[in-house]
Design goal:
Largest sheet: 5 strands, mixed
Low-confidence stretches: 115-119
Radius of gyration: 41 Å
Length: 339
């Protein structure tokens, strides 16, 4: 319980101070001249000024709010390697018990799973942290703990971007001497013109092998056929050229040789799907008697700049036999050779 004395003047405070000053001067002059009733006038002035100040006693009953600690658990696919999942579960139980024992502290948890907040861009733990703190005032933020394998892809460049000031701790669920080798795609074409080539840029990354890494063998296959074998130094970007042999999906697989004792070999390969399209698609439209559907097809095909349209109309019914020479049955010859 807190008690305080507050003043809310009935008139603007500068005006009140001026009037009180003038009154004080007049009372002092009256006292100096020994006028009768000067003391009474001074007391009246004091009471009047005090009344205009409008004093009030405020009594407050305050109840402190608990601080909020946030724990974010990484349950993405990489956490299924080795004993990471079991260690995450054990860390969750331990953190809940420890935070529950803290005075005036609440716990909030957030879980990042594959396909939910772990997207194609990677594991986004800080996005989950921001969502958990969306309705929490900054002054109530006690701190955060991230339980992860260390693969976080949305780390802010500065603490100011998070919007909260408080400690952020990380519990790594992996081992100290883990080794891994993986293929990272930097640029991969989604489309390509049939008969032409496209360039794929990739690099090989290694973890736990030291600073100096020897070149490793990389195999490039297109539609199941090996097109290239080369030595690639980890950490360096490499370009490889593929030919778009046919329309539709062209599958390119980039595979690196397995590393002895590495965590997983699933990331030792990367597949690029390139859609093969033709420069100009040649279409022959054959129609008989006029019909609204035929005009619709013609308008659709003519509207596409990538379509080379040849429209052949047969107006003479096949049952009509009047001896007309074949070369005179149409204005242009039927494109037999083109077909």
């Amino acid at each position: 319980m807190n008690m305080s004395l507050e003043f809310t003047p009935l008139i603007p405070l500068p005006v009140l101070l001026i009037l009180a000053g003038i009154g004080t001067v007049l009372v002092l002059l009256a006292l100096a001249s020994r006028s009768r009733g000067s003391v009474f006038r001074g007391l009246t002035l004091a009471v009047l000024v005090l009344a205009l100040l409008n004093p009030a006693v405020r009594q407050e009953d305050r109840e402190p709010l608990n601080d909020i600690a946030v724990v974010v658990f990484d349950r993405s696919q990489s956490q299924e390697i080795g004993e990471r999942s079991q260690r995450t579960t054990a860390a969750e139980q331990h953190l809940r018990e420890q935070i529950a024992g803290l005075a005036n502290t609440e716990i909030r948890t957030a879980t990042v799973r594959s396909g939910v907040t772990s997207t194609e861009d990677g594991t986004r733990l800080f996005a989950a942290l921001k969502d958990a703190l969306a309705d929490v005032p900054p002054e109530r933020f006690a701190g955060a703990v991230l339980v992860t394998d260390g693969q976080i892809h949305d780390v802010p460049k500065s603490a100011a971007e998070l919007g909260y000031t408080g400690p952020i701790h990380t519990l790594i669920t992996g081992d100290r001497n883990e080794r891994d080798r993986r293929v990272i795609l930097e640029t991969s074409p989604r489309f390509g013109i049939v008969g032409q080539s496209q360039t794929i840029r990739f690099r090989i990354e290694e973890t736990g092998t030291g600073d100096a890494s020897a070149p490793v063998e990389v195999t490039v296959s297109v539609s199941g056929t090996v097109t290239e074998r080369r030595l690639v130094t980890p950490g360096q970007s490499v370009d490889t050229t593929i030919d778009i042999a046919h329309g539709g999906q062209n599958l390119t697989e980039i595979r690196v040789k397995d590393l002895e004792g590495e965590l997983t070999t699933h990331n030792n390969r990367a597949v690029v799907v390139t859609e093969g399209i033709r420069d100009r698609l040649r279409v022959l439209l054959i129609s008989g008697e006029p019909h609204p559907g035929e005009r619709t097809w013609r308008n659709l095909l003519k509207a596409d700049a990538s379509v080379d349209l040849v429209h052949f109309t047969i107006l003479r019914p096949p049952e009509k036999q009047d001896g007309t020479p074949i070369k005179e049955l149409s204005l242009i010859a039927f494109p037999t050779r083109e077909l």
